[in-house]
Specification:
By secondary structure, the protein is mainly β. It has helices at residues 2-18, 44-50, 133-136, and strands spanning 24-42, 59-69, 73-81, 86-95, 113-119, 123-130, 174-181, 190-197, 209-216, 222-230, 236-246, 255-266, 273-284, 291-301, 310-323, 326-348, 354-375.
Amino acid sequence: MKKIVAPLALFYFCCPAAYAEAPKLFGNLFVQGYYSDANFDADKKQLADKYPTYQGSGKYGEDDFHIKTYKSTIGLRGSEPISATTDVVYQFQFGVNLTESNGSSVDLPNRSNYLGLKNDTWGTIRAGRYWTPVDLINNVVVAKGIWDNNGTTQLSKTTQSVNALNMTDAVPRVSNVLFWQSPERKDLPFELFVMYQADEDNEYHNGEGFGSYLTYKPNNGLVASVAYDKDLEISGSLVRGTATYDLAKSTNVPVTLGALYQVADYNGYSEKEKGMVLSAKLGLSNFARPASVYAQYNRSTDLHGISGADSNQIAIGGEYNFKDNVIAHAYMGYNKAKDVEGYLGTQEDANGELTPLYAKGDSDYFAIGTGLQYKF
């Protein structure tokens, strides 16, 4: 980590002499501790029909206590005027792991990085690595830590591990992208964002990708968005709609309600995955500092385009702000998935070679935990 932090610090302190405005050091550090109980139980009839000589129980799982980092990052961002109406804008950001080590190597993956131009009239155009349009409109998910978990659509194909399964979501940003965002206008409560990904090989798919979102923000507590992308989040297409409404803007009730619905069409799969999230967050006024509680429900069908693979999830939690940038978290939740494929190990075939065994079944995942967050 010293190999990265030292150049960041040198750049940060040297910039005032070379640039009109020093870059801003920013970050989000979050550690969590949680207990989880996870299980998979294969369908016995399918297991017997598919593998008549299989002698195992078809069950696996574990319960354990974990100490993990959650979405921790550090970076620099800034701008410099090049005319009365145009600035150069830049950012580079790295993920940091506060609880684990990757041996002697530096494990600081790239996050959101870009260089571009911002103009008061025609908006902002940037190139680099960034969130997709579908990710950027997700203001509905309020659960934190282990329960901010959209994106895992299948159980492991190589290990007997069980995760909470939900609709597809954010990949770890997308690279080689060019993206444009419309300028802010007080008389026009819309925001438009467009992204293009160049034809580069990556671990998710090969080829070009593109996407866009449109957000409506009339300054009355409502924020409504719709987004589409093709070959960005997944190899296929994804449509998402979101809406949140802050009741405190029009009433004395400190509640924010949210709803998300999306449809994912995976290339090579017969079914379209559908997902829904409903959330509510209530501000509490009977504490010395700001605090809140929340509840969130997730529903996914035909996970990863596989017919019958469905899941339901409920999570509840709360937050307490020791300061505006120092927040304590607590959360609990349960996820149940049915007709999902699990890995049962290996078995010797007729040729004496080991082949992997898979069978459909049900999984369940329970977790309760707490976390501490520091933002700067």
